[in-house]
Design goal:
Layout lengths: L1 H5 L6 H11 L11 H7 L8 H4 L1 H22 L5 H11 L2 H6 L6 H21 L2 H15 L7 H14 L7 H13 L1 H9 L3 H10 L7 H14 L2 H15 L8 H22 L10 H17 L4 H27 L18 H19 L5 E4 L2 H11 L4 E3 L6 H6 L8 E5 L9 E4 L2 E13 L2 E11 L5
Parallel strand pairs: 1-2, 1-3
Antiparallel strand pairs: 3-6, 4-5, 5-6
Pfam families: PMT_2
Protein name: Glycosyltransferase family 39 protein
Main location: membrane
Length: 471
């Protein structure tokens, strides 16, 4: 289903942004570590288009299901495969994971690596071989190259090992060898940050951890969102199994495996829960944690299956999640907007951006001919808009008029009061006099482009000519 839809839809905000990573190879990036760009770069021989860009996400999502199936067999002696199939079911009935499996985001490689890291950690607990420590170090390095939330994986390892083995596990060379290997592998991220005044680290810390005014309403809203997006069944089972383990009601033979998964998933979930009360937290941030939690949640579901309320919960959750997934993918396939006008806002980021980028290029060429200069550039007033415009207008530089630093500042530089170019906006309102000013840059409306689907207007793009002479 993912591959069938891959070539029929334009790229979304994140997809276009990470696809640009592959067109600007680097040690790392302002927004994220480089793995998502490196993986996209692998498809270069196939060409860069909507289908090839969505090929790797589909493969990674399928791989996560395969690893979960194997993980359940290894950790919970799931010879029948029942627990593994339930875990795969949890992953594939999570609406947000289905969407992530269709579009490339850093969480996808992290999910696969995190599951493998948990599997290797379990082998270490059972056998404690140096070769497994080396493999774990390699996996931690790959996780660190994928996304900064990978930090919760070694935190989980440390918590689990101290709980089960005390201090003695640190007296062997294995953990230090693993740490050294991981450090070497994530050196591109460290080097990039060192070269750029630790810009990426500072940005992520401020974005994900720092809380100014905490709101219970926002925190509960994030919990409700996770309940819907990761499925009601996965949410309830993930909490219920922790309560069961803490109260000593979980089977004794499965408790070590349960604690390993709890330590690997729940510190991150708790940090996300707290951070959501102070600032906007994107729903994909806890994807790694819910994926790692799936085998344990599946085990609890199987052990509790004789309870009527668990069967009812499973039925209600499955109908709800599958209905959401089916509706979203059916809508994306056919986009019957005249029948479902309330979906207009949901596809705003997909519709018309290619046309807008092409039109902006034409206007830019007109300006260059009028002025006899190659100086003008394309401008946007937000990095979210910049991703699609820069992708479809590549290789033209796209600068962002904003008081905040973005990845585009490192690629194309920051505009100033002397910058000249074509500004693209998608706001519904247009200044009465057609004059727009921001950060000392003054622009005059030059053209408007309306785009839509199924006879319904979705986006209205405005194109402004910006020039210091307009001041």
């Amino acid at each position: 289903m993912h591959l069938a839809l891959a070539s029929g839809l334009p790229l979304g905000v994140d997809e276009a942004h990470y696809a640009l990573y592959a067109l600007h190879p680097g040690l790392s990036y302002f927004d994220h570590p480089p793995m998502v760009g490196w993986l996209q770069w692998l498809i270069a021989p196939l060409g860069y288009n909507e289908f090839t860009i969505r090929l790797i996400p589909a493969l990674l999502y399928a791989l996560s299901s395969a690893v979960v199936l194997r993980l359940c067999k290894t950790m919970f002696n799931d010879e029948s495969g029942r627990i593994g199939l339930v875990a795969v079911f949890l992953l594939n009935t999570a609406p947000i994971l289905q969407l992530m499996g269709w579009g490339m985001v850093p969480d996808l490689p992290l999910m696969v690596v995190a599951l493998l890291a948990v599997k290797v950690t379990w082998r270490l607990y059972l056998h404690n071989r140096v070769v497994d420590w080396m493999v774990l170090g390699g996996l931690y390095g790959l996780a660190g190259l994928s996304k900064y939330t990978a930090l919760f994986l070694p935190i989980g390892l440390i918590g689990f090992m101290f709980q089960r083995l005390g201090w003695r596990w640190l007296r062997q060379p294995g953990p230090w060898l693993a740490a050294g290997i991981a450090l070497i592998l994530i050196s591109p991220v460290l080097i990039w940050n060192f070269q750029h005044d630790w810009a990426s680290f500072a940005y992520q810390l401020d974005r994900g951890i720092e809380v100014s005014a905490w709101s219970l309403k926002d925190a509960l809203g994030m919990q409700a969102g996770q309940m819907l997006l990761y499925s009601l069944l996965a949410y309830v089972a993930g909490i219920a199994v922790v309560i069961s383990v803490l109260r000593g009601r979980f089977p004794q033979e499965h408790r070590p495996a349960a604690w390993l998964i709890i330590w690997s998933a729940w510190p991150g979930l708790l940090v996300v829960a707290y951070s959501a009360g102070g600032d906007a937290v994107l729903p994909n941030w806890p994807a790694m944690m819910w994926t790692v939690l799936a085998p344990l949640s599946a085990c609890w579901i199987c052990l509790s299956w004789e309870k009527l309320w668990v069967k009812i919960l499973t039925l209600v959750s499955s109908v709800l999640s599958v209905s959401i997934i089916a509706f979203v993918f059916a809508f994306l396939a056919f986009m019957p907007l005249s029948t479902f006008p309330f979906m207009k806002g949901a596809i705003k980021d997909l519709v018309g951006w290619k046309q807008a980028a092409i039109h902006a290029r034409q206007l830019l060429e007109e300006v260059r001919q009028e002025t006899g200069s190659d100086e003008p550039v394309l401008l946007v007033d937000n990095w979210v808009r910049a991703s699609r415009i820069a992708w479809y207008a590549y290789p033209l530089p796209v600068q962002v008029i904003s008081g905040r630093v973005s990845q585009f500042d490192f690629w194309y530089g920051r505009p100033d009061s002397d910058t000249r170019g074509i500004l693209i906006r998608d706001n519904r309102s247009v200044p009465e006099d057609g004059r727009y000013e921001k950060s000392g840059i003054v622009c005059q409306l030059r053209d408007v482009l309306n785009t839509g689907v199924d006879g319904v207007e979705v986006n209205r793009f405005q194109f402004y000519y910006c020039d210091p002479a307009l001041k």
